[in-house]
Design goal:
Rossmann fold, DNA-binding, DNA-binding winged helix-turn-helix (WHTH) protein/tetratricopeptide (TPR) repeat protein, 4-stranded antiparallel β-sheet, 1024 residues, alpha+beta, Arc Repressor Mutant, subunit A
Length: 1024
Amino acid sequence: MKVCKIETFFNIEILVINFLVPVSDRRGLASEPISVVIGVTTCHASRRITLFQFQESNVVRPQSHPNPVQLCFVEFELDETNACLSRNGEAVALAPTPFMLLCALARQPGSLVTKDALLDEVWGHRFVSDSVLKTAISDLRKVLGDDPRQPRFIETVSRRGYRFIAGPSPAPSIPSASTTVPAVVAYPSTPFIGRTDKLSRLQRAWERACGGQRAVVWLAGEPGIGKTTLIEHFLASLGGIACARGHCVEHYGTGEPYLPVLEALADLCRSDPALPALLRTVAPTWLLQLPWLSTAQERDALRRELAGIGPDRMLREMGELLDRYTEQRPLLLVTEDLHWSDRATVQLIDYVARRRGRTRLMWLSSFRVAEVVALEHPLNSLRHELRQQRLCEEVVLDPFSETEVADYIALRSTSLARDEAFVRALHERTDGVPLFVSSVISEVMDPADDDATIEARLAGMAVPENLAAIIDHYITRLGHGQRALLSAAAVCGVEFRVETVSLALERDLACVADTCEELVREQMWLTRSRVAEPDEMAELPYSFRHALFRQVLYDRTPRSLRTHLHHQVGAALEHERMAGVPVAASELATHFDRARQPMIALRYYAEAAEAALLHFSPALCIGLTERARVLLRQAPEGIERNTLEITLATLQGVSAFHTLGVGNEARNAFERAYTRLAEVPEHPMRGRLLHGFGYLLGLRGDYAQALAVAERAETLSREANDPALMLVACIVQGEVHHLQGRTQATRHWLERALAIAEPLDIGANEIFAADPQVMLHGMLAIELVRSGLVVQGRDHMQRARTRAQALRQPMTWLVATWQEVLIEVRMGNPVRVAALADDMQTLVDEYSLALGRTACRWWRGWAEARNGAPRDGYRSIREAYDEHTGLGMRSGASEVLGYAAEALLLAGDLNAAQVELQEALRVGEELGERVYLPQLLLLEAAIARMQDRLDAGNIAARRAIEEARTQAAPWLELLALVELCEHHDAATEDRRTLAALVEQLPETDGTELVKRARSLLQATKPVN
């Protein structure tokens, strides 16, 4: 034997060997010369075991049979000449050995074929035991779906052999060209161990996707099982298709939302120049996440346009993008290592899987089952849900069988592959995990040793429980400089830049780069992260070929050194960031967190949390602020700590409000920040905090506390001469006084706020989710209508609508529509309310605006009840109300319950209406909410009249009049007087009061209410 060349390739040495292989047959031993190249490779994202190439001069192989089989049986068709097996016209993946075994049996249908005959024909006279034959028969039966206890195809003849018992069938019709499935060749040019049935499933899923049936496919398995190997082989079988690939990478801190999807989009944009234009049209929020595809001006315009939208918008946009893109051609979207994914990506897969309609899309994702289950990853529950609803397909990769292990060993040593004891021992020690198999083989095999020595080495070797033991072995082979570099790189993460490691280790950049290239050439530790584009000038980062290699290196680094390296890497990344290199704040935060530098870490956690909000990911923001909250305990007391705590708590409050509503999570976070504000009164986030906290308290119905927050904002505004803070105070005051029925006070605060807002012209920003001027014009319009100044009120409402339309901000437009609905409800216009409720629903659906999701439903119910469907209207109102209050929002609850009572009254269900009304009155009393109390009292009067309790009805109507006067709301007083006079014999004093009020409210002239009033006055006019 002569060793011509030795190279390191992953963790197996590549050997080009010329040697004589002893070949046994029943006549004795012979030797044949063979030249073999053996190799195994991996890459960072793939952890794959592939690339086996042979150069042969004379290898003993079973010869082609002079009578090749071509047979149809049941639903199968066997074609030995073309080396394929198909079922109902679709190719069936079958490994070479079972395929040859099937041909040998099918050649003699109905006849006993002895074990010796099968061994001679299939294994070429090599020494193979009966158990290997038995395993191959078992594999064949699995593919055919044959039960050995009730066989349809292969019958066992005890202790003698096997019989092919399937009768021949008519040849199937040839499928049309549009549906022809390429045959799976039994002898691929690059050997691929096992997995042929899995590959066939992927190919069938792709065929379904090409036909317009979306396919979501999970590829699951443990580390080193060969998930990416299968993906690579699958892609190679498809040819030049549209494919976008993204990888989930284990990050320090929380990874960027939708990172693998953004990576795939960027990849697809590079190969398809038309995609950026499509992004601009249907997916602007995704375009915003790919800044290199647009100018700074375009990005600023997009941010303004998308202010206030929810994360659900991104889901819907991606769904539309995929639908539009796949109208032109099918798309394969590949996401690898989903167990490291962010929650947003998992949510997107869920959304895409549940969409309906024709889409030529296949989304193939790989993940490790153990990590998904152990870490309670959201993917775990999702995969079960989608499988139950038949919205996905899960392909689970099992370890190699003994036969497949033998096939793998044969690539290194044909004699060892024939040794049943060695194959079984290796399978037992590695559990058939491909990566473990390759590692152990590399460990125990030495070309200079004979088979007995190799078997003895295997027998004496401790079985590795995981790959760490093997990786440890290679760590010890590293030189001091290499190990120091890799330890620093492991602290950086799976991917790193040479400049970062150079700065962290304070080493010469060229020296570090040379060492990295050396490690790349060794094909074991490092690789380039991706292939450079022609126009890229920057140095590409490196990455570990296998995340487990990095993890073992990281774990083996002493704790004190690891802490020091985190500090050094963090400082290096800071330096690079100042030089313009994009470095995520969350990454810096985690490095300094692990370096035990809490103040620096907290600053970056705050920055990362704010960035998460800008990326429409409030859930990520909550996770970052929660980690920072734990770290705050380690930070020294002082102004800086208090400043950071206010920032983090405010961001957490905003995020919790967006994600979880107005519950205790948001309230507690805001309260922590609010409590600390006295120590840092000039905090830059005080405006966001005070407005957010005051708004939240108002929505919860905690009006007294909301007013206290507004007063605090007013005080701080005077001290700092900050008009934005005064604007916050005025808006919160106006909202609360409105709900408490104080018309004059409300108008005072709103007019004052409008005088501040108009010259500022600040629009929607980090403090105000909606434009303040639009909010104020709309709120003032409502109060002017309550005051009987209908013309002025409608003028302000029109100004609000005009500005909202010009700004094109979804939240601002929702606020304007909301306020106009309130006016139309007070004007008693169900047709207009129904139209506006539909407009709100469109906004809510289009931009995922959670705030209006319930309101548009109860207003549609109010309109339905008045338009002749009171029962349906009541159901809509009550369901929306229950959902709304279930989220902790009680603001306006008494008014919505009043809508429900009115709907039941219109349905004639007086008892149920009375129950709803009493609840409305109780809630209003509990909250101190009086804005709708006059209307509630009029409902009480109407119920009493229908129950023939006329005196009680008259008393309730007069209470409504008094309440309207107390609130300084002449429009409501006019409504109550009309109701009183219409249903009772109006006293002279009541008629005079009504006439005087009509004359005092000239702007109400022409309204339906005034028409009713004038009709009443005309009917009761004394005759001369």
